[in-house]
Write a structure and sequence with these properties.
Blueprint: H1 3-10, E1 13-22, E2 27-32, E3 37-38, E4 42-44, E5 63-68, E6 76-81, E7 96-100, E8 106-110, E9 115-119, E10 139-140, E11 143-144
Parallel strand pairs: 4-6
Antiparallel strand pairs: 1-2, 1-5, 2-3, 2-4, 5-6, 7-8, 8-9, 10-11
Protein name: Phage baseplate assembly protein V
């Protein structure tokens, strides 16, 4: 294989560690290898950016995979983060999809039980321009909304 082509292919995909982020531009810089070579600002790939928008920025110190255009290391993208020995997956259950935030808040969906669980470290606010509808009983602090006994009427409400 051509030496120039081999060198070019070797530099298209790289794994490194985020050294800084620019949230307003959705870019980050990444450090590569033992020589601590720092990239230019790389665009952080997002799932959607037009009518529906997703937003994610990697943390400084997070291990990421980058892909570069064949023009060199000046233009590239962070295509995702990878787990490693230091940063382990939050679960090993393949039936669970989970988001864990740095404050400890966790959103988890277990497809084997059809259960969505939200463990929030702070308040949960639901803002709706229309009605909020709940099908099924609402249980607050162990008290059923459907089956509790109202103190004045003596019957379930």
């Amino acid at each position: 294989m051509n030496v120039h082509l081999l060198k070019l292919l070797k530099n298209i995909i790289k794994v490194g560690v985020v050294s800084s982020v620019n949230p307003s531009k959705s870019t980050a810089r990444v450090v590569f290898g033992a020589q601590n070579v720092v990239s230019h600002n790389l665009v952080v790939l997002q799932r959607q950016t037009r009518n529906n928008k997703d937003y994610y920025m990697p943390d400084v110190g997070e291990q990421v995979v980058c892909i570069f255009l064949p023009t060199g290391n000046a233009e590239g993208f962070i295509i995702g983060s990878v787990y490693n020995d230091e940063d382990r997956p939050p679960t090993d259950d393949r039936n669970k999809r989970m988001v864990v935030f740095k404050d400890g808040t966790k959103i988890e969906y277990d497809s084997s039980k059809s259960t969505l669980t939200i463990n929030a470290t702070g308040p949960i606010n639901i803002v709706a321009n229309k009605d909020v509808n709940v099908t099924g009983d609402v249980i607050a602090d162990g008290i059923s909304l459907k089956n509790h006994t109202h103190p004045l009427l003596g019957k379930p409400q």
